[in-house]
Amino acid sequence: QVQLVESGGGLVQPGGSLRLSCVASESIPADHLYEWGWYRQTPGKLRTSVAVIRRGGRSYYLDAVKGRFTISRDSSENTLFLQMDNLKPEDTAVYYCNGNSPGGVLPNYWGNGTQVTVSS
């Protein structure tokens, strides 16, 4: 069973930066069929997509993070990244990485999350 492990979260002041990483425990079967993304969740709220890399390589972002966050992936290292710059208090959340194959036939992978807190 493939496991995803996030790291890189922490406490940062407004305007600061963090880089999240998500490492898969092994190579993903049918990797080319997957889309990879970062989600975030705050208490009492639904988990929300923040950034995603679609099959083919195009990236999409939540409007609130456009221009500040950058998603990337190193498929050779089975690692997904989220560079977060100019962080704001409203970015505070638990961030989760996800690997999903549209169609629902292949397994959907989630990490356990990493806490990001933006506060002065």
Describe this structure in words.
- The chain is globular.
- The termini are far apart.
- Strands 2, 4, 5, 6, 9, 10 and 11 form a 7-stranded mixed beta sheet that branches.
- It is built from no helices and 11 strands.
- Helix content is 0%, strand content 48%.
- β5 and β6 (59-61) form a beta hairpin.
Question: Could you name the key traits of this structure?
Answer:
7-stranded mixed beta sheet; 11 strands; 0% helix
How do the helices and strands line up, and which of them pair or pack?
Blueprint: E1 4-7, E2 10-12, E3 18-24, E4 35-41, E5 48-53, E6 59-61, E7 69-74, E8 79-84, E9 93-100, E10 109-110, E11 114-118
Parallel strand pairs: 2-11
Antiparallel strand pairs: 1-3, 3-8, 4-5, 4-9, 5-6, 7-8, 9-10, 9-11
How big a fraction of the residues is strand?
A: over 45%
Number of helices: 0
Derived from helix and strand composition plus strand pairing, the structural class reads mainly beta
Runs with pLDDT <50, length 5+? Answer: none
Q: Termini separation (Å)?
A: 40 Å
Overall pLDDT: 95
In angstroms, what is the radius of gyration? 14 Å
Report the helical percentage.
under 10%
Order of helices and strands: EEEEEEEEEEE
The dominant shape is globular
Task: Characterize the largest beta sheet: strand count, sense, and whether it forms a barrel.
Answer: 7 strands, mixed
Number of strands: 11
